[in-house]
Amino acid sequence: MKVTKKAGVATVLACAVFAGAFVGSCGKKQADPYAGVDKSYLNGIDEPLAGADVQVVGFDLDVTVDLIRMLGCKTVRFRIPKSFLSSPEQYDVQMYEYLKDAEKKLNDAGVSLIGQAMLFPAYTDFRPDSANSAPIPSDPAYGEWLQAVSDMWSTLTSLFPDVGYWEMGNEFNAATFFHPNGYIPSEGSLMDGIGGFDAESQVEVVTDYMFYATKGIHAGSKKAKSVMPGLSPMNGSLVTVKNFVADVYDRIESGNAPYGEWKSTEADDYFEVLCWHPYASRVDESWLSANDAIYRVAIDHGDEGKKVFFTEFGFSDGGYDDKEEVQIGYMETAYRYCLEKMPYVERLCAFRLYECAYAEVWGGINEVHFGYFREPDTVNGFSPKEKAFALQKLYGGEGDLTKYQ
Question: DSSP 3-state assignment of 78?
Answer without folding.
Answer: strand
